[in-house]
Amino acid sequence: MKKYLAFLFCLIISISIAQNTLKYTPVNKSPKATLKQVSWIAGYWQGKALGGLTEEVWTAPMGDSMMGSFKLVVDNKVKFYELCTISELNETLILRIKHFDNDLKGWEEKEVSENFRLVKIENNKVYFDGLTFEKVGENKLNIYVVFEKSNGLKEEIKFSYTLKN
Question: Domain DUF6265 spans what residues (predicted)?
């Protein structure tokens, strides 16, 4: 009975943590998709998250990818950067991210990136493994990301952005 209650508690916690993200499972392979379906992500986006100001810039599709960058500024100092791509690969999409300290020292090894497989795509949402882009208006974008905390628990963080000219 104790094991059942512990399992039920963990299930409820995991469901409540990830309300806006999906997990990739190898059983269901990534759906067919093109960059045209996610071109609405392109723009210069600003918001607040992680205790500071954030900006994310995404280019329009060109070639077989979109390029993005992210910056977090806390107390008027850059905490870290990300360089990102959404690429067409094998008739689907993949999101790749590399992280850098404020002095551009990479977090990942030179040949390694964090890769997020496509799980599902809708008109105003694209779900990658643990990361979702959602267009919530002509000038609004939400990005939901599942972070693993130091204690092993996972937490979904919402980044709310406004399109800047």
Answer: 39-146
